[in-house]
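> run fold Anther-specific protein RTS
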Amino acid sequence: MVRVGAAAAVLVLAAAAAAMAAEPPTDDGAVRVAAGLTKCVSGCGSKVTSCLLGCYGGGGGAAAAATAMPFCVIGCTSDVLSCATGCSTSL
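> ok
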């Protein structure tokens, strides 16, 4: 399960890196960042972080929580992929 959580974190970091890639310099030499995409991806990162923390912190150590946690992490991964896809298609 740690691999799934790590994979979700890597996806968020890759999306954030792509979002923070600077556009080419403008006529005045200034470099501007695509703010809309950055805000969208940052929002996705916040959502997946709180989702994953909820998966790991909400169980209280019960056996049922250990069984449910993999499904929770998969749900978080699915949510972040949907969110990131929404960011790329909304621009």
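Confidence is low (pLDDT under 50) at residues 19-23.
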